[in-house]
Design brief:
Keywords: Membrane, Transmembrane, Transmembrane helix. The chain is an all-alpha fold. The chain has seven helices and no strands.
């Protein structure tokens, strides 16, 4: 008879991995937020939208949640990563004499609390769960990248360099393809990933426009 190996060490290992994962998410989030603030107005024209892009913060929150030991920790990493980005951005601008508006704090604070856990959970689903949940997890960052690229090529076409948005669109497609090849199995799961990504990309401009209204209305 094969002896039963208790799962206590595994659970203990997961508990030990939670604090480092959250610490890394917060630390890298703070650094990314500070870098975003410093980059605004300093990047070349072709890269300027990067310092105002939701896609870059979304992708980073997704990546920060990937090493988390559990789905719950992944959701927390996605949230704390975005909170760190917002805190780093606000603190850096404040140190330079540029206080952030209440609208910006409300918009990105809501994104951290609502979208952050979903991104983190999606990262864990893509990493650990097969089928539909993996496809859903992959669709979140890919959909935001593609949706924001479409928004940039239409609404922001007159004020930003379109080459950046085309590059972001290509990046979203490549990420979707690479993520599907690496983790998804079967035509059905890949088709689901494409459909879910299209849904997120379609919804993004609507949600972003509502968020822009918040930024304008709230001083």
């Amino acid at each position: 008879m094969t002896p039963v190996v208790p799962d206590v060490p595994t659970r203990s290992h997961r508990r030990r991995g939670t604090a480092p994962a959250l610490a890394i998410a917060i630390a890298l989030g703070l650094c990314a937020g500070a870098a975003t603030a410093l980059a605004q107005g300093r990047l070349p024209a072709g890269w300027a939208p990067l310092a105002n892009s939701s896609g870059s913060w979304t992708l980073l929150a997704f990546l920060l949640a990937l090493p988390a030991p559990t789905a719950l920790t992944g959701a927390l990493c996605g949230c704390t990563g975005l909170v760190g980005m917002l805190a780093g951005y606000v603190a850096t601008d404040l140190a330079r004499g540029y206080p952030s508006s209440t609208g910006l704090l409300v918009f990105w604070g809501a994104a951290a609390v609502l979208a952050g856990p979903l991104l983190g959970l999606g990262a864990q689903w893509w990493r650990r769960r097969p089928g539909t949940r993996a496809a859903l997890g992959l669709s979140a960052p890919c959909g935001v990248l593609l949706g924001e690229a479409g928004y940039g090529l239409t609404v922001l076409a007159a004020s930003t360099d379109p080459r950046y948005w085309w590059g972001q669109a290509v990046g979203g497609v490549l990420l979707l393809g690479a993520g599907a090849v690496r983790k998804l199995r079967g035509v059905g799961a890949c088709a689901q990933a494409v459909l879910f990504t299209a849904a997120v990309a379609t919804a993004f401009p609507v949600l972003y426009l509502h968020g822009s209204v918040v930024l304008l209305l709230v001083p």
